[in-house]
């Protein structure tokens, strides 16, 4: 975890703990907030492809949210309301979920709670079903902020159910969740003396983008029933499925739930309606005791009356939702997803292919020299230095280093700027190959100290254990070292010749020492030193 330096004499132990608790997702967003990319005002700012926001449909939303029916102000909207949310909004939420979740029976407004975001709902649910130090099962990887949602207020922990990133045995899918894995983790928690109160399931999944079938979900719910565990089902991306080959099924579409009193469904507008700034989250549960308990915390997490009115107007406008927003949103998401996955394929980067959510879960393990979370974090910081904010696997408690989440729901011109992601990866690929080449080559005659022919050397080593050095690629990576654009050289000799020229004719070396680069990116140090040693001959 990222630690805020220093302890404050003005805060309690708990206050200092809260102040100092900042995960990688928060750390990256803080840096982005200070240096946001903007076409006109900050074209060299940080491009955010790490935060899961849909930025493709502002025009559609602006048109709808500025219509006259949205500007209504009634005295009741300016007064305190039921802390579960205004009745008119809870009625619209119940109708909306009945329709889009394909519920076999009408859902009831009395079972709905509205708060300022799903994070607030998760925190409140955890507080009323768990005691301090209790735990909730959650498959990994998972959306990392859930850890803070549960810990900061409720002091509830998460107990991880690690999913394997490799297919094998009975698992035909990567990161495949099974009842057996839930059973195994529950048993392990009990052996460690940890009390498990619930399970969190995310469908469609964040960050995997996987869509579980109804049969799979019912299987997970039946597991929870056997052990009298609550199940919190996060369905935030239920309408963000943009290909007919995949169909989402809400647990609310089931004819009957294994344990309806312990099944609680969370949904909001942040993802499906691209309205993260509205801060609206909804809970549906048939457990009236839980509704009453959560409502007692509603005064801390209320939503303004005018916002509730706007959301109700939006949800009841089925014509706009079905004929304008959803078709166009899905079309744009599909196009953006196709663009990003095409870029990944062109570089030979594996990824999970699910036409859902706002992101792609990609395997960048080949860009870290060793399988460690330290190296993964180094790669994450390398992207950030190149003004690209991504989300790395450890931010989602992934059990294997090297996986990253790419958010593709961005404007076209931003996506094109995403080519700097490609450029950064090419840089790392070239440096990795160059490092392997320099270490494995024991031929001192590769570089002639008196002449540097521009033709391809006939002495270039053949491929053995790893891929042969891509010299054209490696020469491109000089951009990372000197930050000056130049034509790609034909081979390693030209690269070293160019580097030699820079050393002799400028102050570049003083500004770019190996130690300075190593402080920012340890991956570069060995390569840099080896290059300098040869180039100085």
UniProtKB/TrEMBL annotation:
Residues 53-412 form the Aminotransferase class I/classII large domain. It comes from the Eukaryota. PROSITE patterns: AA_TRANSFER_CLASS_1 (PS00105). GO terms for molecular function: pyridoxal phosphate binding; transaminase activity. The keyword Magnesium does not apply. Keywords: Pyridoxal phosphate. The keyword Phosphoprotein does not apply. GO terms for biological process: amino acid metabolic process. InterPro entries: Aminotransferase_I/II_large, Ethylene_sulfur-biosynth, NHTrfase_class1_PyrdxlP-BS, PyrdxlP-dep_Trfase, PyrdxlP-dep_Trfase_major, PyrdxlP-dep_Trfase_small. Belongs to the class-I pyridoxal-phosphate-dependent aminotransferase family. This is Aminotransferase class I/classII large domain-containing protein. It comes from Mola mola.
């Amino acid at each position: 975890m990222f630690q805020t330096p220093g302890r404050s004499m003005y805060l309690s132990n708990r206050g200092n703990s809260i102040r100092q608790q900042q995960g990688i997702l928060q750390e990256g967003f803080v840096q982005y907030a200070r240096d946001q990319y903007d076409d006109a005002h900050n074209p060299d700012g940080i491009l955010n492809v790490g935060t899961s926001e849909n930025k493709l449909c502002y025009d559609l939303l602006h048109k709808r949210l500025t219509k006259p029916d949205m500007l209504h102000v009634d005295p009741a909207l300016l007064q305190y309301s039921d802390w579960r949310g205004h009745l008119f909004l809870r009625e619209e939420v119940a109708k909306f979920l009945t329709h889009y979740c394909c519920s076999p029976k009408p859902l009831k407004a009395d079972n709905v709670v509205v708060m300022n975001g799903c994070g607030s709902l998760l925190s409140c649910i955890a507080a009323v079903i768990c005691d301090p130090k209790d735990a909730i099962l959650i498959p990994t990887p998972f959306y990392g902020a859930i850890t803070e949602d549960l810990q900061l207020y409720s002091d509830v922990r998460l107990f991880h159910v690690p999913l394997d990133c490799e297919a094998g045995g009975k698992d035909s899918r990567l990161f495949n969740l099974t009842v057996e894995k839930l059973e195994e983790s529950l048993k392990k928690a009990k052996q460690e003396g940890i009390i498990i109160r619930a399970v969190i399931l995310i469908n469609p999944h964040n960050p995997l983008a996987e869509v579980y079938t109804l049969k799979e979900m019912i299987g997970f719910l039946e597991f929870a029933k056997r052990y009298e565990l609550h199940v919190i089902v996060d369905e935030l991306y239920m309408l963000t499925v943009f290909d007919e080959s995949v169909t989402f099924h809400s647990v609310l579409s089931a004819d009957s739930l294994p344990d309806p009193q312990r099944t609680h469904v969370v949904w909001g507008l942040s993802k499906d309606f691209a309205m993260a700034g509205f801060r609206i989250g909804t809970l549906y549960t048939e457990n009236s005791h839980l509704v009453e308990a959560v409502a007692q915390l509603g005064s801390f997490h209320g939503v303004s009356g005018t916002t509730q009115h706007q959301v109700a107007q939006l949800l009841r406008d089925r014509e706009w939702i079905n004929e304008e927003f959803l078709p166009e949103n899905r079309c744009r998401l599909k196009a953006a997803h196709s663009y990003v996955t095409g870029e990944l394929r062109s570089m030979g980067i594996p990824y999970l292919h699910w036409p859902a959510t706002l992101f792609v879960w990609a395997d960048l393990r080949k860009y870290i020299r060793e399988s460690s979370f330290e190296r993964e974090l180094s790669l994450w910081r390398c992207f950030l230095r190149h003004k690209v904010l991504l989300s790395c696997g450890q931010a989602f408690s992934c059990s294997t280093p090297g996986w990253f989440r790419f958010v593709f729901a961005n404007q076209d011109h931003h996506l094109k700027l995403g080519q700097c992601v490609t450029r950064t990866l090419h840089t790392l690929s070239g440096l990795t190959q160059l490092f392997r080449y320099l270490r494995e080559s024991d031929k001192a005659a590769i570089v002639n100290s008196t002449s540097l022919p521009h033709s391809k050397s006939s002495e270039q080593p053949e491929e053995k254990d790893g891929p042969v050095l891509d010299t054209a690629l490696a020469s491109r990576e000089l951009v990372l070292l000197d930050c000056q654009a130049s034509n790609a050289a034909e081979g390693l000799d030209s690269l070293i010749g160019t580097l030699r020229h820079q050393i002799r004719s400028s102050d570049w070396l003083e500004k770019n020492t190996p130690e300075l680069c190593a402080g920012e990116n340890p991956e570069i140090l060995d390569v840099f030193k080896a290059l300098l040693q040869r180039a100085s001959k």
